[in-house]
Amino acid sequence: MPSLKNQAIRATIWTLAGYGGGQTLRLGGNLLLTRLLVPELFGLMALVQTFIIGLTLFSDIGIRPAIIRSSRWQDEKFLNTAWTMQVIRGCWIWLGCLLVAWPVAKFYGDDRLIWLLPLVGLTALISGFNSTSLAVLNRKMEVGKLTRFEAIAQAVTLLVMVVWAYFRPSIWALVIGNLVGSVLKLVWSHRIDPDISNRFAWEKSSLRELVSFGQWIFISTAMTFVATQADRLILGRLFSLEFLGIYTVAFTFADLPRQIAQKVASQVVFPVISRYTHLDRSELRLKVLRKRRFLLLGLASLVALLASFGDLLVLTLYDERYQQASWMLPVLALGLWPFLLSATIDKTLFAIGKPKFVALGNFLKFLYMIILLPLAYKEFGVLGAVVVVTFNDLPFYAAVNYGLWREKLGGTQQDIAATLLLCGLTLTIWGIRYTMGFGLPIDNIL
């Protein structure tokens, strides 16, 4: 037990340090790229990535989480069968990029998508050959190795993008950078753990275990795509590509707490809970809530800071072309809170084999978006659309907490306390800022 606790602490520190370093790299690269490339290219790339993410999630059968939670995570036959399925999936994703390229290009009225989707989709094909050692390291909570792996790959990707954009400012800078990063990850993943050497295999018992767990993961991740990417899919049709690029800048900063929560949940919380699933529900619940409160405290502080100073961040770092992102960022950051409450505990449902409630939550979120987002934009324009996006995690939160209540793992009282803390922090900082003559973060909303 002390060993597991120490592992979890080290893994959390590595996760946060790696995420902080990664976001610093990303911010630096983004600032350079926004000065070298026009906003339209970021909007175009956001559309391409959205469809590739969609194909990726619609074909996800949870190979990595299946390895992490399985008692056979060290079994060579099991790992090789999982790797074979992963390779097949990568091929299907790339084939999907080829099939949807033409209709997507016609729908959005941009013929560049015909060749961009298959070309950028090669990253999914390459990633399909990544070693299962990455999942095994996650299971062993050797997050330090994984963090260095991700950081170096990200640095190389951004370096290629910036250098290419400096000499040839075009969409090719973003495309080539992503491809180079994917190849680097592929090669390194097969060297990061010399004890694992993947080869093609197809063992029936391993296949049954992977498919049994993966069926709900497939549904859940498919719903995750339609829920989390619906804003860009719909706004890509409603907004111009230039304005979509501006929205993407605001969303990228506002999304920082979400990414932190998901990183910690997948790299620390899920592996730890997977070792506790033999406990009765009341004891498991107490363990989860005891550790969760520290994570909620940190996330509430981060959201409050983004909601209070996000506008100044945009106005300081970006030129006048991105000015409208200044009011979007604080609003979107506050809207993430229901998701953060869910993301800090929903891995418990995965660990006990009940991901269907997460799938339900994402489906309800998708329905909310496709119904309300076009209506809000039609009646109230950009402001209405952003407000709808701000509240889009409420259906997800409701479904996840219903599942936690059903499984006797709920933490509603802790959620209320954390929400009151967030409100208190945000209003206090807003009040101090206003009395000092800096106005409010949403002053540019009109």
Q: What is this structure, in a nutshell?
A:
The protein has about 450 residues and is mainly α. The protein has helices at about 1-35, 40-55, 65-70, 75-110, 110-120, 120-125, 135-140, 145-165, 170-190, 205-230, 230-240, 240-255, 255-275, 280-315, 325-335, 335-345, 345-350, 355-390, 395-405, 410-435.
Features:
2 domains, 446 residues, 0% strand, single chain, mainly alpha
Binned, the helix content reads over 70%
Could you name the ranges where pLDDT drops below 50 across 5 or more consecutive residues? none
Q: Any idea how many domains?
A: 2
- Figure out the total of helices: 20
The secondary-structure element order is: HHHHHHHHHHHHHHHHHHHH
Termini separation comes to: 55 Å
Task: Describe how the helices and strands are arranged.
Elements: H1 2-36, H2 39-57, H3 63-69, H4 76-108, H5 112-120, H6 122-127, H7 133-139, H8 143-167, H9 172-189, H10 204-228, H11 230-238, H12 241-254, H13 256-274, H14 281-317, H15 325-335, H16 337-343, H17 347-351, H18 356-390, H19 394-406, H20 412-435
Descriptive account of the structure:
The protein has 446 residues and is an all-alpha fold. It has 2 domains: 1-228, no CATH class; 239-446, no CATH class. 80% of the residues lie in helices and 0% in strands. The protein is built from 20 helices and no strands. It has helices at residues 2-36, 39-57, 63-69, 76-108, 112-120, 122-127, 133-139, 143-167, 172-189, 204-228, 230-238, 241-254, 256-274, 281-317, 325-335, 337-343, 347-351, 356-390, 394-406, 412-435. The longest helix is centred in the last third of the chain and has 37 residues, at 281-317. The radius of gyration is 22 Å and the shape is globular.
